User: Fold Phage integrase family protein from Cupriavidus necator.
Amino acid sequence: MARINFTAARVGGHVCPAGKSQAFIWDSKASGLGLRATANGAKSYIFQGKLHGSTVRTTIGDPRDWSIDQAQDEARRLQRLIDEGVDPRAEKAKQRVAHEAELADSRRRSATVAEMWADYLEYLRTKISPKTKKPRSAQYIADHAKLATPGGTAAKRGSKTTTRGPLSPLMTLPLSELSADRLCAWLEAETPARPTSAAYAFRMLKAFVRWCEGQDQYKGIIPADCCTSPKVTGALRASSTKAGDCLQREQLAAWFAAVRSLHNPVQSAYLQGLLITGARREELAALRWDDVDFTWRSLHIADKIETEAGRMIPLTPYLASLLAALPRRNDWVFSSPGAASGRIAEPRYAHNQAIAMAGLPHVSLHGLRRSFGTLAEWCEVPVGVVAQIQGHRPSALAEKHYRRRPLDMLRLWHDKIEAWMLEQAGICLESRPPSVQLVKQPA
Assistant:
């Protein structure tokens, strides 16, 4: 192939002849340096040489970006690589891989907790729990999102704004800064105001850190002792149930009288249902009319633990009369025309109002669930029966593997619990609405 001395005029005037896809001219000063012009008018400096008898060709760059001298120097460098037995294309690929690895390392080290928390939530939504071998509940995932919320948005009720989640101050940090000192300072700031929420948030954060360590692209970024350092564990307070967050037997009369006097029948029935069933607040709030069987006296609860099948519990006579009297506005049993979801959203206000009206010490909504388990002991109900109605995990080997109580057995005990509560409250259930057909169980 003929070689010419590259000049600005010759480089600028080189074009691809008509009828050809590309055309080359070769420099006489730098071995292997050529200029390629294509049919669409593009030009580029190239290098071509021989390595172990095979032709090696690689692109140097556009003449608009490379001067002739620069292109000649690059061609000489590439020729030296070939003389050493190195393929310039492999060298270029090696540099590209190293550059991409550097960029990836930079990205992973600059990744924030918020970015990875979003990925973690997606993992929780889409993957099966390795512990339970079942999908995680929507409430569990919502709790994670709430822990990291920055707050400041309009509350569902009133003119107040939402408060930030306990994990919010950590969300803007890079993963590499999630150190033991940082977590210790975070706990010391969060714990005095809300110790239980801070402890719960720490447990969720600890699981998040373990998950990050299991991801190849983020392994080794978070300091290994960020959650296990004595500094951090020493800043944690022992979580305990608030003293008195449970109704006593002698308080049932005042509590039922106040709750039954609420103007909103949906809220009244819902609060009484929490105490009578011992269900979690969201489990009962999510009850649909399709989940209620008045004929065979049963409720299908969307269980927090049994997320797929849920659990079936008895529908006791008094609770059945309350549900039958509720308006059927939509699919939800405890409907609310003012709520965006169509169902009851925040019953705490009504309950606090009833507690104040009755002159009782404060009892939380979860305290009503706790009250069911505690008051059931007055009826000498087997612990396993109470646990199965409330949806607790079996706590003993026999309960876990050898007890499968049918609904009629649970109904026998559940009716006794409700009847005892009504007796203590001075409520007499003499008649039932005609729409409620209760089936008498055989002796």
